[in-house]
Amino acid sequence: MDIDIYDFDKTIVPFDSGSLFIAYCIVHYPWTVITLPVIAVGLALGFAGMLTFTQYKKFCFCLVRMIPLKKAVKGFWDKYEKKVHPWFYQRKRYSVVISASPDFLLDEIQQRLGFDELICTRHNSKTGAIIGENCRGREKVNRLYQLHKKEDINVIDVYSDSIKHDKPIFSLATGQCYHIVKGSRNKIDYTKTYG
Predict the structure, then answer these.
(1) Cβ-contact 114, 108 below 8 angstroms
(2) 168-183 pLDDT per residue, tens
(3) How would you list the strands of the sheet with 94-102, edge to edge?
């Protein structure tokens, strides 16, 4: 099966959906502001090397305990779905979106946009805690191959905003690698970029 792979944040949309969702919740559910000190402590511990990025994300999404999550996610995408880059609607092949963002946030936009498959970071929707690994870097490829045998898929094009973090998925492209900059698709040569 021929597929195209897309990162989500700053690729399909021009923002980091997890961070923007936290801001959205603080505005629409003001009592969640009490989580800001927890998030700040997590950030400080992360910079000090005492927390992994995965552990830090647990701090960030602790506010899901305090909100009507499904309603918040619906309201968030009602507001921001229009920011999806128009070129994403023109996809021609089986489309797999692979993202570090939370499943509870991206499940809704998958239904709205109708892309074929979503692979993202799994969270406990009651506590915000990550289940398993953060779907980032090499983990994106690991998760893809947990769902599909290598021999059963042929990755044609790969789209991402991050040359630094998405080398593993760019390496799978047999067609084009597209570096997304401010919504524009820019072809890159994998060998020259990483060689």
Answers:
(1) no
(2) 999 999 999 999 999 9
(3) 130-131, 117-123, 94-102, 2-6, 154-160, 177-181, 184-188
Angle separating helix axes 17-28 and 103-113, nearest 10 degrees: 100
Model pLDDT for residues 116-163, shown as the tens digit of each residue:
999 999 999 998 889 999 999 999 999 999 999 999 999 999 999 999
Long-range pairs, 129-137, Cβ under 8 A, ≥24: 129/58, 129/61, 130/54, 130/57, 130/58, 133/54, 134/53, 134/54, 134/57, 134/100, 135/98, 135/99, 135/100, 136/53, 136/100, 136/165, 137/165, 137/166, 137/168
CB atoms within 10 A of CB 181: 10
Q: What is the SS3 assignment for 145?
A: helix
Predicted pLDDT of residue 154? 98
